[in-house]
Write a structure and sequence with these properties.
Elements lengths: L38 E2 L6 H4 L7 E4 L2 H25 L9 E5 L6 H12 L8 E5 L1 E4 L9 H8 L11 E2 L10 H11 L5 E4 L21 E4 L2 H7 L12 E4 L2 H5 L3 E6 L5 H9 L17 E6 L7 H4 L7 E2 L2 H15 L8 H6 L3 H7 L2 H13 L27 E6 L4 H15 L3 E6 L9 H13 L6 H9 L9 H21 L7 E3 L17 H14 L3 E5 L8 H15 L10 E5 L13 E5 L1 H12 L18 H18 L7 E7 L2
């Protein structure tokens, strides 16, 4: 048993069940989580045992929203304690404000919104709080939407009762001739921080303290690395317009704080959190310097905690609940440690690698080996829609009904073929009634040059001539402002045509292609609107029209504020609305991953092997998305094209199955069953 969150070590298990499933979704502010199946029994071990591998104590929450609530509690309590102390000592006439250091970027957005809510509810006042912001791009004006100054005001400071004279944010307009003196004065002003709230970059950056930063560094102007600029470029419409420099508090400046709370949300932060919490101190991961602070806490969601020892190998930490799937996770881990397939594991392998408890619970070892081998083998199927007239007692998908009504949700107009294109093709080839729903237009990811090329083709064919008109429209764009709606409509049309071409390449009925254009995405700019009931209603309408037997959706666990996560929450919100519909009682939800990461084999419920020919057919479907080849505006840190990422990922999954003793396949796409 795991009690509800209260102690930060304990993960909340609250949430309504959908049609008897393990789905958890309560409202549109919730963050979805995968079904739990066995694992560490948190309440049976002291916190120092749970955290035995951690050099910085980590508080892990199931959802970002719960972690945000915990940090908001810390901040509100600290402010109130400071004010009560000042009043009790009758020094309120000359009382110094509570000094709060704040991070910028996406990490604190949920916290800012929660603090604003608490202020509006009368739970806290910021009238006696001074804020020092961590960093700012350089050069940049405070009124530019990409600036840290603009964002922190827009998301937080404009909505609370903080005094203007208590707001301190690095000035990105200071002339270069004075910038060194300015940074020195900013640093001197931060003579003391009561509480520092900070995030961490994927390479361990604190603010803009890049790898290699000196631990005694103070507030200063720094040169941004190419990787950092590439990450930030999405806010600046490309790397060419992204500042090359920034002002940042130094590591020593940050370490002055009486207390530090480092927050991280999402799977993309898992690698760096492992290094910061459990790794060695190194200037190549600047955030590891925080291990030397006397009063620091890491607050993360389960996705960011995914590579901590307590998550990767909980049996090394404390007692566990040994369900079949959790047993599979442990055995696959053991195979990796000793370099053997499942059926060659020995009793000594289990004992020497801290799995004696598993032997006691489920042994002997040879029985465990056979059980896990059969369990994993039964995930493999060439029939993702179920095999007609077959014994399905050990198959992941029931044989009936056949054919099935299938609905595939794709966050962008290419995620379907990139992530599960082989399975998509197989479902169509097997005669199932397959529909695909593109949740967003993806218009923001089309380069202007692609638009002009398409219009030039139309002009050359003599159909229409709008080339010069649209060229002027592009030239008139204002940096940081939403793109003209007319231009976005052209870009959306390009994405729709590409999606239809990909679907047509493997014979999908054109009437089964749905473009939802969810409103949260259609803002015209990088910043998207919150998920709303309008988004949910659009999906509910489609679900009730199709009444699917199978649903596929992108179950990515990365950035909680990203498009994929928002689209996942929209699907879950719609299913919550439809939970009493008769068709849903026999419907199953399958989750696929994006182009970068794959499900851990310990979690997999269905594995669909692809032949060499099917892999080529999938590749050709991805090729149809021409606007996403070569010149994608926001390519991320991986320079490979999407078809290359997809093939490497699925072929690596096939190799993992092979190493564990399964049959050898060209590639495998894998899925987790949510209900």
């Amino acid at each position: 048993m795991r009690p509800l969150a209260g102690d930060p070590l304990r993960r909340a298990r609250s949430g309504r069940r959908l049609a008897g499933a393990k789905l958890k979704y309560t409202d549109m502010n919730s963050k979805y989580a995968l079904p739990k199946d066995g694992g560490l029994i948190v309440d049976s071990a002291p916190s120092d045992i749970i955290r035995r591998y951690e050099k910085i104590p980590a508080s892990v929450f199931e959802h970002e929203s719960e972690g945000v609530g915990y940090v908001a509690d810390l901040i509100v309590r600290a402010i109130k304690k400071h004010n009560e102390y000042s009043l009790s000592n009758e020094i309120f006439e000359d009382v110094q404000p509570f000094v709060l250091g704040l991070t910028t970027g996406r990490t604190p957005l949920g916290l800012y919104h929660e603090l604003v809510r608490r202020y509006r509810d009368g739970m806290v006042s910021f009238s006696n709080v001074a804020v020092y912001s961590l960093d700012e791009f350089y050069p940049i004006g405070a009124d530019e939407p990409q600036s840290r100054n603009y964002r922190i005001h827009e998301e937080f400071l404009n909505h609370i009762d903080i005094l203007p004279e208590n707001i301190h944010i690095p000035d990105g307009t200071v002339p270069e001739s004075r910038i060194s003196r300015y940074c020195e004065s900013y640093d001197r002003a931060i003579n003391h921080i009561d509480l520092m709230i900070i995030g961490v970059g994927e390479q361990g950056q604190l603010g803009f303290n890049e790898p290699g930063s000196y631990e005694k560094s103070r507030t200063r102007l720094v040169q941004l690395s190419h990787d950092s600029r590439k990450i930030q470029s999405s806010a600046f419409s490309g790397i060419d317009d992204t500042p090359k420099m920034a002002i940042t508090m130094g590591i020593d400046t940050i370490m002055r704080a009486d207390k530090i709370v480092l927050m991280a949300w999402g799977e993309e932060k898992a690698d760096v959190i492992r290094k910061v919490v459990e790794g060695q101190i190194t200037d190549q991961v600047p955030a590891t310097a925080l291990q030397e602070h006397h009063n620091i806490e890491v607050v993360i969601d389960e996705n960011a905690a995914g590579k901590l020892t307590r998550e990767v190998a909980p049996w090394l930490v404390g007692p566990c609940e040994w369900t079949p799937k959790f047993t599979r996770k442990a055995v696959i881990w053991l195979c990796g440690v000793v370099g053997k397939p499942i059926l060659k594991l020995t009793h000594s392998d289990y004992i020497e690698n801290s799995l004696g408890e598993l032997l006691e619970a489920k042994g002997p070892y040879d029985k465990i080996n056979i059980d896990v081998f059969n369990d994993l083998q039964h995930t493999i199927t060439g029939w993702p829609g179920g095999k007609p007239n077959a014994d399905d007692s050990t198959r992941p998908v029931p044989s009936k009904p056949f054919p099935k009504k299938v609905l595939i949700f794709s966050p962008h107009p290419d995620d379907d073929v990139i992530s599960m294109g082989g399975t998509f093709i197989r479902l169509v080839d097997h005669g199932h009634d397959v529909h695909v729903a593109y949740e967003t237009s993806g218009d923001f990811a089309v380069n202007d040059d692609v638009v002009l090329q398409q219009l030039d083709t139309v002009r050359e064919l003599g159909f229409a001539d709008r080339f010069d008109e649209v060229k002027r429209l592009i030239a008139g764009k204002v940096k940081g402002q939403p793109e003209p709606r007319e231009l976005l409509e052209i870009k959306a049309a390009i994405r729709r045509a590409e999606a239809k071409a990909a679907d047509r390449s493997f014979g999908l009925d054109p009437s089964h292609v749905h473009f939802l254009n969810l409103p949260f995405y259609e803002t015209g700019g990088l910043k998207k609107a919150p998920l709303s009931q309008r988004d949910i209603d659009i999906i509910v309408k489609l679900l009730r029209e199709i009444e699917p037997d199978q649903i596929y959706a992108a179950g990515d666990l990365a950035d909680p504020h990203g498009t994929h996560r928002t689209c996942m929450e929209a699907v879950l919100g719609a299913l919550e609305v439809a939970k009493d519909d008769a068709w849903l009682k026999n419907c199953h939800l399958w989750l696929y991953r994006g182009a970068w990461l794959e499900w851990d084999l310990g979690m997999v419920d269905m594995a669909v092997p692809l032949s060499p020919d099917e892999l080529i057919k999938k590749r050709h479907a991805i090729y149809r998305h021409v606007s996403q080849k070569d010149i994608v505006p926001f390519p991320g840190s991986d320079s490979r094209e999407f078809w290359q990422r997809a093939e490497e990922r699925t072929q690596n999954t096939a190799r993992l199955y092979d190493k564990l003793g399964m049959a050898e396949y060209q590639a495998i796409e894998v899925f987790v069953k949510m209900f």
